[in-house]
Amino acid sequence: MNYLIPANTKNGNLIFNVFTGFDLGLFLSGIGISLLLLLIVSPETIVSAFICLSPGLICSMLVVPVPNYHNILVVIKEMISFFNSRRNYKWKGWCYTDEYK
């Protein structure tokens, strides 16, 4: 009684087996904005350096892989969808037509 769990078949469709095109674009744009801010602002304190690096850090955290989901961005989308959708489901099971009136 051995059970074979299939491997993730979506890995072949992903870039580096981790990122989608949108994820990679988001990550690279965040890093690019951080580098641009570092060149423009030239931070002298730790607070200003953190502010300049924050777009890259935020975008990096959004594309980090998470077990049972693709990444943090997908988790946030699912949470928003769950809290904004209707959770009062109407019964349409196999005995829907057999109910007494």
Task: List the keywords.
single chain, 101 residues, mainly alpha, 3 helices, 50% helix, elongated
Using the alpha-carbon principal axes, give the shape: elongated
Q: SSE string, helix = H, strand = E? A: HHH
Rounded to an integer in angstroms, the radius of gyration calculated over CA atoms is 22 Å
Number of helices: 3
Strand fraction equals under 5%
Residues in helices, as a percent range: 40-55%
Number of strands: 0
User: What's the main sheet like?
Assistant: none
SS content category: mainly alpha
In round numbers, the mean pLDDT is 84
Stretches where pLDDT is under 50 for at least 5 consecutive residues are none
**Whole-Å distance between the termini?**
47 Å
Task: Please give a structural write-up.
With 101 residues, the chain is mainly alpha-helical. The chain is built from three helices and no strands. It has helices at 21-41, 46-62, 72-84. The model has no long low-confidence stretch (mean pLDDT 84).
Blueprint of the fold:
Layout: H1 21-41, H2 46-62, H3 72-84
Helix pairs in contact: 1-2
Short characterization:
50% of the residues lie in helices and 0% in strands.
